[in-house]
Amino acid sequence: MKVGIDIEKLERLTLALVKRIATKGELDWLKKHSAAQHLGSIWTAKEAAIKALGGGDMRDVELLHEENGRPKICLHGGAEEAFKKQNLSEIEVSISHTKTDAISIVIMK
Fold first, then answer.
1. Residue (of 76, 14, 18, 16) closest to 49 by Cα position
2. CB 8 within 8 A of CB 102
3. Which DSSP string corresponds to 22-66?
């Protein structure tokens, strides 16, 4: 089992910064959910996933949402390769935020 966690001050995150690491799907989602907490959710979920994997490119990690709003992580490219190489098969993500901070934890089994 691999675990990654990240917490960020929302005041440090800008849309321009998140755009540098966001996928098209994440940018589309942000058009509907533009609050700072959502920028923080994307950033911290990606960072937590990279930590769980032991490194990688944040652009290879995608935060998606099920119809009920539940977040899920989808891996691409090098992140997907690292996940498979470590014989992992499941990813769980939990995200929370306040008006000032966002936090995510990712567990890979």
1. 76
2. yes
3. --HHHHHHHHH--SHHHHHHHHHHHHHHHHHHTS--GGGEEEEE-
Contact between residue 46 and residue 70 where contact means Cβ atoms under 8 Å apart:
no
Contact criterion met (CB below 8 Å) for 45 and 92: no
Question: pTM here?
Answer: 0.94
User: Exposed, middle or buried: residue 2 (CB in 10 Å: 0-12, 13-18, 19+)?
Assistant: middle
Q: Residues 52, 58, 62, 68: is their CA dihedral positive or negative? A: positive
State which amino acid sits at residue 85: K
For residue range 58-101, what is the model confidence (pLDDT) as tens digits? 999 999 999 998 999 999 999 999 999 999 999 999 999 999 99
Per-residue tokens: 42: 């994307």
The answer to whether 47 touches 22, Cβ cutoff 8 Å, is no
